[in-house]
Amino acid sequence: MSSSPIVPKSLTCPKCGGNMPKLAIAEDDAWRCEQCKGLWLGMNAYAHLREQADAIDTGAVAADRPNNADDHRTMPCPYCVDRELIHMVDSAQPHIHFESCLNCYGRYYDAGEFRDVSEETWREHIGALIETLRLNLAPSL
Predict the structure, then answer these.
(1) pLDDT average, residue stretch 51-79
(2) 28 CB contacts (<8 Å, ≥6 apart)?
(3) 104, 80 in Cβ contact below 8 A?
(4) pTM confidence score
(5) What is the 3-state secondary structure of 90-136?
(6) Between 64 and 24, whose confidence is greater?
(7) Which long-range contacts (CB under 8 A, 24 or more apart) does 55-58 make?
(8) Helix, strand or coil for residue 21?
């Protein structure tokens, strides 16, 4: 008999303290805050759910939202509870700031950020294409 981890039906939003019910997504762990619409994504959910970002990240980006780079508040991990989240920057899109847990590897995105990080811009697409061509066309040593 195998035991699988107990996945909570709801979490407490680390940003606003609102209720975050688990989304009905069979393959991954994802929770959305009922108040601020922030998202908590479990360890593997980020990669698996990028194609569904428009359906999952339904919150609007607040026009007056402060730059997260200037936000130095500590926030508890909504999954681990006793761990603090660390501030991260997406290396491919440095305007995206999110929080992550070093224990469970989950990620917290403000409303609209997961949609934004999931959209590859033309510049990023062209850059990746050029890098692929450069590597494939480079003379073999």
Answers:
(1) 75
(2) 41, 42, 44, 45, 48, 49
(3) yes
(4) 0.77
(5) CCCCCCCEEEECCCCCCEEECCCHHHHHHCCCHHHHHHHHHHHHHHH
(6) 24
(7) 56/23, 56/25, 56/30, 56/32, 56/114, 57/32, 57/109, 57/111, 57/112, 57/113, 57/114, 57/115, 57/118, 58/32, 58/111
(8) strand
